[in-house]
Write a structure and sequence with these properties.
Two copies of one chain form a homodimer.
Chain A lengths: L8 H8 L5 H10 E4 L3 E5 L5 E4 L5 H6 L7 H4 L1 E2 L7 E2 L5 E9 L1 H8 L4 H19 L5 E8 L4 E10 L2 E6 L2 H4 L3 H4 L11 E5 L25 E6 L10 H30 L3 H29 L1 H20 L1 H7 L2 H12 L3 H7 L8 H15 L16 H8 L7 H19 L4 H7 L4 H11 L5 H17 L3 H43 L12 E6 L3 E3 L2 E3 L2 E3 H7 L10 H5 L9 E6 L11 E3 L5 E8 L17 E5 H11 L3 H8 L4
Antiparallel strand pairs in A: 1-2, 1-6, 2-3, 3-10, 4-9, 5-9, 6-8, 7-8, 9-10, 11-12, 11-17, 13-14, 15-16, 16-19, 17-18, 18-19
Helix pairs in contact in A: 5-6, 6-21, 9-10, 9-17, 11-12, 13-21, 14-17, 14-21, 15-20, 15-21, 17-18, 17-19
Chain lengths: 665, 665
């Protein structure tokens, strides 16, 4: 997970005999794309064609579907450029510049602690971002690297007109469903193509894009992954990891697993419910499995044992250095105390402010409208972070997206949230009373969903543009609920930020600087959903005494087909059986250190040519949140050769195949 | 949780000025009743009338209900003795004798380890129990006390004709539902009356029963609880507690919370579904909340901190004593190693053998029939423990009960189990393949439930009595499934028993003996679902800076009524408003050290008169599994005064009121 400015090219040369040049790095970086929703992607043609995972644009496919045209079930292919359909919620970013702003931020927070530290840090971040983002076509983020050891300003080109060009059937993208998720051997075809359109109403012309490799990758090949790993916690203290294991993860796991049970049963009642729920269900199941993997990694004594040793080593170095000792020796205890404060607060924070009490799209929109009305009149630096100038284009896009919202699903998820609120905080809790009054959760949810007009984009636009006056005049019940609970939600957020977040950040930063002082920048910073380059090889692993081979084939997919979901190949594949040689590679495992957010990352060879498309990791990779274990941690990708062949012979996506082959080399 | 033979009467005298006599103890003991399903109760009249909780006989009320007469919704009251309805699954036991058999068991396992230890222990237990249980009217259990420091033989009179006399509405028994469960102030009326009938077809005549107190208990009063606490783990090693925190509890919590989400959504679809699911749902929710409380107690650093200190102290004492050192100093490591072996085995064991993979009544019956056919021809000592002679009456009762089984609920729970199997063990696992073949979970579940004849008691009787020949000849699909998976299920059970259970038992026993040698029997043994007597006082507690008073009133219940479930008082209570003074106590909190299994325990005063009925504990009491914290741990009971008044003025249960008042003193 190396940042592009510190890629260890010489080390790669030493171990693999290949040194990527500065041009090579710049070209791959500028060909890389970030999807603002939390995924990676890449330009693969000079006409703005972008490759990513199906699961990265699944909500777009769903938004474009209706009971009559169910693209999630049938897949989608635009035969002509004009057939490409705009994704309501997708924003693509291209990283064009990185600047070190560490000195400015550390200067701004010098000598501060507690909430003052946090306030100063956020204000300076907002200021730097505002200065940088000179127009809506730019997005600027101050990125915290090495837990605050360094701060970089990342400048992106922002593209909001993104259109769907090709998506396979959901059942093929997620072939094997939840049982096969995070497993290998794997036979998913989790690929999709979208296209960035320019403001001129034409496909974007881009100088930087990845060409397709003529030959596919084979076992042992050196390959690179360029993408946006979302988050790791490899520098966390032992107390932080124990808190995750004992408090934070159990809380979220229970929330998700109950949600899963509810959604599965809800979705099973009719085909229409299944259609409108499956994507949400899949993402809940994916989150659940991923977090369970993390919890299991932390529950394994060896991982925490290693962390304890590393912490003792750093502590000894800090104690041995008078200057470090003076600044940093109290950092571990300060973190532990902040976590003690967080322990009784976590559920309250997650339920009132984090969304667990209101898992509803409509409520989310209502809260955004209420807060936008409160925040936007304030000076930029004083706003809640998600309402600062740099965030406004994304906020507008989210509020004004023209995507369907399913009333019935809203009712059940909102009921679920209200029940969680009441049972966790207690029926007598003032916040719960404020939400429910004497209503039953389901009746209230039903009345809110029935009464709200927030389904309507125009109404949302009216409220957004009308500002505080419009919001205060509205009698919309969902908006009224969001207003009613806002003071208490903000209060718990402030308590969390002042007594937990700021302490963890400030002391995490002290430890990060101590670590840099003691060991230098020998490794890469924790993942932060910013662009990184990883190198590795195509390789299997050993598990319970058996060897897992790194490549699966088309023949394997047909052998796994039982005819029953989630092991049912779609008709397109059944009809195409024999058109692609059974020996053609379909998926592959590699040694790259990746994590959630890397989904959709291109995998390239020494020539910078596409040889694969990352879409998953194996079960041991889930512990990668805390530590990378080279023996077993594997990334999982669609093989580039299989991808192109399926596109051609299974889907007959000839326009795209031609576009890709035009630059094949 | 004192055993009756070691009750510290002198200590009670010293602290409370009252010393229960031997006669007092014998009388209360013989008035106490155990319900084999996992609850406590008491005789409260000379005619076999038994008081317990509604939730202890909820499954009986459900079994007796149908779409046309829904006793769970309406409550039940038998106006005449002949109207009392037999509970298909309830067995009541009365403890008549206790004998110390420690020497016999420790002699039988002398010098043995691993599976030999386990086998010898089980064989000797079965032998002792067979010798004792000279007829079907007796039940004999060897009880492991002090983790194997002592073994006692408990002899019970067994009553299988138990009839329902009175049950309130479920909504009143569980008033406040899941939100109020384990909370206080509380307003539940979780009481019920059943009656033991003799084999002569008449109500049982009993010399020992508790009379009702004329005056109710008040704050500060000394009171006693006689009941059957189900299980505590207060002597567990730190490694065992960490295993619970990190592995065992998270596994079960996730299982239950997904099940809960599924069942709630399933039940919400129609009144009939709600009727047939609510009791199961309630028990899943209760288990979930209880285990979450346990997990939170273990996640609290102070609890494990205290345990670490206690363990270090015992270790030091063991190391200091050459004899103890020789036998016991390796015990902690042996336990830790067994848990390492259990870690990768736990889910497999729970799914294949423990029932999580087959959460279905029909499958349970099928497995029992298959195993009975295999086990019963063997010598008693060689059988699986639940098929030994002592267990046969309960086995027969379970298999031949005439209770309804809901096909639709069977399909969803079985589907749930099959999905859990596949996702946890993997689609390629041989056991999963053996269960599912190429079928989808739901289709298979549907076919099994549709095809089986095990709904029919006569068919089950035929198979039970026909033995192996009948079982092997059967083409019943559920029976075939149970047969198909039995070898692998037994295999994982054997692996668990040999490599985990027996090591934990043997070394737990060593530690227990070391503890007795080091500290004597200063405390009471861990709870084992055997009769215990607890003393304490009526008392509130302080929580987040506010004081919780120990008594709630009828007026409080009416104030809590919102008209919406689960805060809707039933019509009977609404109509009776004003008939009972609002100041009358309804529920109360006391300091007793109780735990699950104590539900239904009578609470008696110094005169041995009923002053309350235990039905719950507060949230802090959930950590009582591992440690009793006097400041906050509280038991929750229905107040005796409120109980009798509601029976009379809300329910007009005059026959029972007369029966109770006849012996009021």
């Amino acid at each position: 997970m190396w940042t592009y400015d510190a890629f260890p090219a010489a080390a790669v040369k030493a171990s693999h005999g290949f040194e990527p040049s500065r041009e090579w790095l710049d070209h791959v970086r500028l060909s890389s794309v970030r999807l603002a929703g939390g995924c990676s992607a890449s330009f693969v043609s000079p006409d703005g064609l972008v490759m990513t995972n199906h699961h990265c644009i699944r909500s777009c496919v769903e938004d474009l579907s209706s009971p009559k045209r169910d693209y999630l079930a049938t897949g989608f292919y635009a035969k002509a450029p004009g057939d490409e359909l705009r994704c309501p919620k997708v924003e693509a970013n291209q990283l064009v510049e990185m600047t070190d702003v560490t000195a400015r931020l550390q200067g701004a927070t010098q000598g501060l602690g507690g909430s003052a530290f946090n306030t100063a840090l956020k204000a300076e971040m907002s200021k730097i971002e505002s200065e940088c983002a000179t127009g809506p076509e730019l997005r600027c983020d101050v990125v915290t690297l090495f837990n605050g050891g360094k701060y970089h300003l990342y400048k992106y080109r922002r593209f909001q007109d993104v259109r769907l060009a090709f998506a396979p059937e959901f059942s093929m993208a997620a072939f094997g469903g939840d049982p096969d998720n995070f497993n290998f051997p794997r036979f998913g075809f989790d690929a999709a193509f979208i296209r960035v359109w320019g403001t001129n109403g034409q496909p974007l012309k881009t100088d930087h894009f990845l060409s397709w490799a003529r030959e596919g990758a084979r076992e042992g090949d050196l390959v690179f992954v360029s993408g946006h790993p979302g988050g790791t916690e490899r520098q966390s203290t032992v107390a932080e990891l124990e808190f995750q294991r004992d408090v934070a993860l159990p809380y979220t796991l229970l929330h998700l697993s109950e949600m899963r049970g509810m959604l599965r049963e809800y979705a099973s009642a009719s085909p229409e419910r299944w259609r409108t729920t499956r994507a949400k269900l899949r993402s809940v199941e994916n989150g659940l499995k991923a977090l369970r993997g993390r919890h299991q990694a932390l529950a394994e004594p060896s991982l925490l044992g290693d962390k304890r040793k590393a912490e003792a080593d750093l502590r000894a170095k800090v104690e041995a250095d008078p200057k470090l000792k003076a600044t940093t020796s109290g950092a571990w205890d300060a973190i532990a105390r902040a976590l003690d404060a967080y322990r009784p607060l976590l559920a309250e924070y997650k339920l009132k402010e984090g969304g667990d009490g209101f898992p509803s799209e409509l409520f989310g929109l209502a809260r955004q409208l209420v807060r936008a009305a409160d925040e936007l009149p304030k000076a930029n630096a004083e706003r809640l972070r998600e309402y600062t100038d740099g965030q406004l284009p994304a906020l507008r896009q989210g509020l004004l997206r023209d995507a369907p919202i399913t009333p019935e699903l809203e009712v059940v998820t909102l009921t679920f949230g209200f029940n969680r609120l009441r049972e966790t905080l207690g029926a007598d809790d003032p916040f719960v009373q404020e939400v429910l009054g004497r209503e039953a959760p389901e009746e209230l949810a039903r009345a809110l969903v029935k009464g709200t007009k927030l389904f309507d984009v125009k109404e949302r636009q009216r409220l957004l543009e009308g500002g505080r006056a419009a919001v205060e005049a509205s009698k919309d019940p969902m908006l009224l609920l969001a207003r009613r609970v806002d003071a208490r939600a903000r209060e718990v957020r402030k308590r969390y930020e002042d007594s937990v977040e700021s302490v963890l950040k400030k002391n995490g930063e002290l430890l990060a600087r101590a670590r840099l002082a003691a060991y230098g920048t020998t490794g890469y910073p924790d993942a932060t959903f910013t662009l990184r380059l990883s190198y590795g090889v195509v390789k299997g692993w050993a598990e319970n005494g058996r060897t897992v081979a790194p490549l699966t084939t088309f023949a394997g997919a047909y052998a796994r087909h039982t005819g029953k979901e989630p092991f049912r190949l779609p008709d397109s594949w059944l009809e195409a059986q024999g058109k692609v040689s059974g020996e053609t590679p379909l998926d592959m495992a590699t040694t790259h250190d990746i994590i959630g957010g890397n989904s959709g990352s291109p995998m390239v060879d020494r020539e910078g040519r596409v040889v694969g498309l990352i879409f998953d990791g194996n079960l041991p990779s889930l512990g990668g949140r805390y530590a990378y274990v080279p023996e077993t941690n594997r990334a999982v990708a669609v093989h580039g050769e299989g991808l192109l062949r399926a596109l051609e012979h299974v889907y007959g996506a000839n326009r795209l195949v031609k576009e890709l082959r035009a630059n094949q080399r």
